[in-house]
Design a protein that fits this description.
With 281 residues, the chain is mainly α. The chain is 67% helix and 2% strand. Strands 1-2 form a two-stranded antiparallel ribbon. Keywords: Lipid biosynthesis, Lipid metabolism, Membrane, Phospholipid biosynthesis, Phospholipid metabolism, Transferase, Transmembrane, Transmembrane helix.
């Protein structure tokens, strides 16, 4: 059977029906996304280890996931490899690493002894983390950003929330009895952290470009960081408990600084309210 002649095309062949052509992508665009994928793998592995009663490894994997999830965006900006695809991947990874994984690890370790109340507390935290991340994404998409956004978070950020909510696990590693009373108290604490995530509490971020350090304090600060890391490696759970306590104690001071500057106790900023919620549902 003879092959028919192709139809005459006066303007040349039409390639629009063939779909998009494959093109090569620079490796630097892929590398930040690989970090995000590794972060998701670490968070999910932490959940598995928790169900296998390997709690120390589980917490380590969740903290590793939080660390990787925190640096992938910075790596993308340093490598000039930011993309819409990477931003969406990062948002999806955040809910796993900062919401689902910490909630399930703390539930398996302590909250399950409180039965349904413990599960409700874990659910509230995971949902609050999702709401917190959604609010952050909405604020990040605004064209006209408020000047204070470079200095303050609205509520406790999700990475810090993941670190805070694991406090009952740290205390259990230090020998505190994880009985039913401990489970009920841990459930109350988990709900409190959830409300801190979705609150309008001004939380100092430390990202303001106006923050400068005196020259004579640079070396002591660097030595302090080295000391902190060394203690963290040697006395991991004691240092984590201290870090959580220091962070919680710092929250009122950040709110006090905001009140002195803006005259309110909470951030009442238009653009993170009903209009934004309705526009992004």
């Amino acid at each position: 059977m003879e092959t028919p002649f192709p139809p005459f095309e006066p303007n040349g062949p039409d390639d629009s029906a063939r779909g998009p052509r494959l093109r090569e992508i620079p490796l630097r665009l892929v590398f930040p996304n690989l970090i995000t994928i590794l972060a998701i793998c670490a968070g999910l592995t932490g959940i598995r280890l928790a169900f296998e009663n390997r709690y120390e490894l589980a917490v380590s994997m969740v903290l590793l996931a939080a660390f990787l999830d925190g640096i992938d965006g910075r790596v993308a900006r340093l490598m000039k490899a930011t993309s819409k695809f990477g931003a969406q991947m990062d948002s999806l990874a955040d809910i796993v690493n900062f919401g689902v994984a910490p909630a399930l690890v703390v539930y398996v370790f302590a909250l399950d002894q409180a039965r349904s109340l413990g599960w409700i507390a874990a659910l509230i935290y995971a949902i609050a983390a999702g709401l917190r991340l959604a609010r952050f994404n909405v604020m990040a998409e605004r064209e006209n950003k408020a000047s204070w956004q470079s200095e303050y978070f609205v509520g406790v950020p999700a990475p810090a929330g993941a670190m805070l909510v694991l406090l009952p696990v740290y205390l259990g590693f230090l020998g505190l009895a994880t009985d039913r009373t401990f489970a009920y108290l841990s459930s109350i604490y988990t709900v409190l952290i959830a409300f801190l995530l979705i609150s309008r509490l001004p939380v100092w971020s430390g990202k303001s470009e106006g923050n400068r350090l005196r020259r004579d304090l640079v070396l002591p600060m660097m030595l302090g960081v080295v000391l902190y890391v060394a203690l963290l490696m040697s006395y991991t759970w004691e240092v984590m408990v201290f870090t959580v306590a220091a962070y919680l104690i710092s929250l009122p001071f950040g709110a006090r600084k905001w009140r002195r500057k803006y005259g309110t106790l909470t951030i009442e900023e238009p653009g993170i309210g009903d209009d934004d919620i309705g526009r992004h549902i």
